[in-house]
Write a structure and sequence with these properties.
Layout: E1 9-12, H1 18-29, E2 33-38, H2 41-55, E3 59-63, H3 69-78, E4 84-87, H4 102-130, E5 133-138, H5 151-171, E6 176-183, H6 189-202, H7 206-215, H8 225-235, E7 247-250
Parallel strand pairs: 1-2, 1-4, 2-3, 4-5, 5-6, 6-7
Bound molecules: NADP nicotinamide-adenine-dinucleotide phosphate.
NADP nicotinamide-adenine-dinucleotide phosphate binds near residues 14, 16, 18 and 190.
Length: about 260
């Protein structure tokens, strides 16, 4: 299926690893020109080289912290008129809310709510003027089904989702869409570190934890990041302009509901 986005330009934030990288790879396969970001320059450059080698796409690596004004400005300077923007900024830590102080919360809200909002603000008017825009926010299944030890993720991302629900409907008539992709368990470094922590706590091998978690999922496994990337590319397709303000859950069916 030709998604009709060959030659478009995209900024994919926080994309040296995991789900961001998978989104970048899928867009590059569609012929999209990329700017990718992450804080660790070496890993980011290696990922850019890997995507170039796999797809032949033009990929520019911009190292920086996307939660800062400087980090956001650097990404935009490298791609001032993006057609596509994929937003996320890592995830907040796990823990007990009794241990989190105001600074911890401000950091989580800044990274998982305000950063994507400012990333959208920087590009949305240009997209409106050019009559094409696809913005995808990577949030979490925790938006629909809260995860007890990820209270800051549950809260901050729900805030972003509420804001975007309103904005998406104000920009859709200009062929600019904003949607959320909600990952369930995808085997990235982040998920693996969660499994490793669970293994330490229960004094069991990590492979046993992964097998247990896989067996409890209706799909009988955890997700592959490339599946997530393909869903992202689909939301960015030229023909996806009528998919507006949606939150697509990719969790193998874990969230148990008849619909929605
Ligand atoms: P990951 O494997 O840990 O990768 C995170 C990526 O983001 C890395 O490239 C990292 O590079 C970059 N990054 C982190 N903070 C950044 C910042 N402030 N500025 C720029 N880049 C930054 O994580 P993931 O599993 O792909 O998760 C992606 C998102 O989905 C996260 O928000 C996560 O909470 C959410 N999520 C994931 C899962 C899952 O199962 N994997 C489930 C639910 C939600 P540097 O560290 O070098 O900056």
């Amino acid at each position: 299926m030709d998604l009709g986005i060959k030659g478009k330009k995209a900024i994919v934030c926080a994309a040296s690893k995991g789900l961001g990288k998978a989104c970048a790879m899928s867009l590059a396969r569609e012929g999209v020109e990329l700017v990718i970001t992450a804080r660790t320059r070496e890993t980011l450059e290696a990922t850019a080289a890997e995507i170039r080698a796999a797809t032949g796409a033009k990929v520019t690596a911009v190292a920086g912290d996307i939660t800062t004004d400087e980090g956001r400005a650097a990404a935009l300077a490298a791609c001032p008129e993006p057609d596509i923007r994929v937003n996320h900024a890592g995830g907040p830590p796990r823990g007990d809310f009794r241990d989190w102080n105001r600074d911890d919360w401000i950091k989580a809200v800044d990274g998982n709510m305000l950063t994507p909002i400012f990333l959208i603000k920087a590009v949305v008017d240009g997209m409106i003027a050019r009559k094409f825009g696809r913005i995808v926010n990577i949030t979490s299944g925790s938006v629909k089904s809260p995860i007890p030890e990820l209270g800051m993720s549950n809260g901050a991302r729900a805030g972003l989702t509420g804001f975007v629900g309103g904005l998406a409907r104000q920009v859709a008539r200009h062929n600019v869409t904003i949607n959320g992709l909600l990952p369930g368990p995808f085997l990235t470094d982040r998920l693996r570190s969660g499994f490793e922590e669970a293994a330490r706590r229960s004094n069991r091998p990590v492979d046993e934890i992964i097998a247990e978690r896989s067996a409890s999922n209706p799909a009988g496994r955890v997700g592959r990041p490339e599946e997530f990337g393909e869903a992202c590319a689909f939301l960015c397709a030229a023909s996806s302009g009528f998919i507006v303000g949606q939150n697509l859950l990719l969790d193998g069916g874990s969230f148990n509901s008849t619909m929605g």
